[in-house]
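Onboarding guide, step 5: your first structure request.
Type a short instruction followed by the sequence, for example:

Predict the 3D structure of this protein.
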Amino acid sequence: MKYRETLKEFAEEPISDRERLRLFGLPIFDSLPELADIMHLDPARLITLATKSRSFYKRFSIPKKSGGVRVIYHPSRELKAIQRWILHGILNNLAPSDSATAFSIKKGLIHNVEPHSLNRYFICIDLEDFFPSISHYRVRRVFKTLGYSQDVASFLTELCTCNGGLPQGAVTSPSISNLVASKLDRRLQGLLSRRNITYTRYADDLTFSSNNRNALVRVMPIVRDIIEDEEFRINDSKTRFMGPRAQCRVTGLVKNCTEPKFGIGRKTKRKMRAILHKIIVRGSPCVEYPSTRSISGWFSYCKSVDYNSYKQLSQYHFRLVAGAEGSGTAESAHN
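The system replies with structure tokens like these:
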């Protein structure tokens, strides 16, 4: 039997669609010509872009680290500009659930793992084909709920979807996915908070943790029912249980039983020290980090998720560069 929320959802006082849009701080338009006018576009061109959106994407595949390929849909410059308007004009005005930590200016990887730092038992669940599984009608329901008319909601949906779902590569897809998954987040949070189980979601990665192993394991069948009821699919091959005797890896960050918080981990620190030594002291090229910019990008990432490791590696990097300059090999240190 599927889990049903026990908390009652109180109905809000009925308001008009226009009033709802005003409350959300969203642009108000009731028809395609009004939308085209706001976007400074010819209505006929906007219709073409929406009704034939598939023609305005370039499709290509990239390999996944875990095997298989990920299909990317790259929109044309014109369609991408329209999607950017929808993103900045509509979607960015809407906050995702508190449990959602991806695709947000204010949150990131560190916010996904910090709530779990004091727990010892973890279960990580991956949602299969996250973007493509979010269908055309679910996207339309988001725009309709905001207060847009059926016709306008359908039109906005056409501009943001491809082949019946969210395309990975469209700038609007991340924000829309968070809005679609907000009900999933609320249901899981309502279930788990009463059981002292911590829950966060980073895109398609769901993390559950607790200091009570039995409570965490027992609730998983109900969690599965909720996920499936919200029309998402679990990738069972990527579902993982981790306990205090093993290294816990959550969305790329790790925590050992002796460490109080998540970070890049000792293995990654040793690897980066070796890479820095190879590039700066030996002057050897590195496939993973072929330029100074790529090394700087990694340091920026490290600073945002593990400041202590960032400081240690920065100091090590400084010593290597200083030594290379002193020995006359400064040129190789910067290539």
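Each response can be followed by summary notes, for example: The longest strand covers residues 57-63.
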